[in-house]
Amino acid sequence: MASTLDQSFSVGKESTYGTVVSLARAFEVDADGWKRQQESIPSVGMRPGLQGEGSDRQKTVVMGAQGKTKFEVLNKGLGLLLQSLGTTTGPTQQGATAAYKTTVTSATASPAIYYTAQMQRVDSSDTVRPFTYPGSTITKWKWSHQVGGLLEAELDWDARTESTATAAGSAVSPTTATTYDWTQLQCTINGTEYCLANVDLEIDLGLKTNRRLMCATSAGLKRAPKRAAVPTVTGALKGEFDDLTNFALYTAGTIVPIVLTWTGASIGGGNNFSITITMAACKLEGDTPESSLTDLTMQPLPFKALYDGTNPMYKIEYQSTDTTL
Which of 52, 185, 262, 311 gives 20 to 30 Å between its CA and that of 63? Predict the structure, then answer.
């Protein structure tokens, strides 16, 4: 017998968009955020004795599904999802150590990384009911961290369809993995450390997801998402108002690099578990520090990452002991 404690979320990387594959890894999401999208198309016309919409004039079309998953980031296993953000290299062994680094950078082309996702839900009879989402694409990443908390990632998903006909797969989370707490984060702005109270970062990949056309080959299902808008990278930093340095960068419109680094335990040979997000060209968008009689003056620093024509708009380096994505 199963219970609510047996509910899980897992994914596997697809070779072909919308073709179900075996599950490869479970992610410890904190809620079930998947919803089927379905459209009813009624037909109403004049006919004798009409009292309302006719039950025999109804069409139902599956429009796909959308999902939201939020989880606390582990120091292992994230590479499978990170590759959805752009051009991926690695995992590359660091010297002769057990450390391997995966690097993902922004790119012009759509990432074209698709997953089979499965949400296993337990019903009132303690039976596992798998809901499978082939053709799942990550459209947006959100990172957040605050003092007293753990690093969290929230992902927005688009799926080609939803099915309850696929059997429950088996996938597990990485073993002996751990999270990143707030003492392990360092932020630099223009090469100078900025002490944070909290940080939020959002990467929107600019994908068009409603690619529906009338043709026999798609059978009413949408085509794979593709980039149809300029990707955006926005964020917000907040810390104590230490001096005028960052305020001056904001008022002058100076383009500066922002680097976020989470450093975990040692792997060996001078290498640590770590995540580094480098944004080479950022514009601080405010704001003026605001004083009060109940707290220290704080400095909010919303920002936008830009493309400088040379460096990637963002680069994410994930170092762990994972030898494969």
Answer: 52
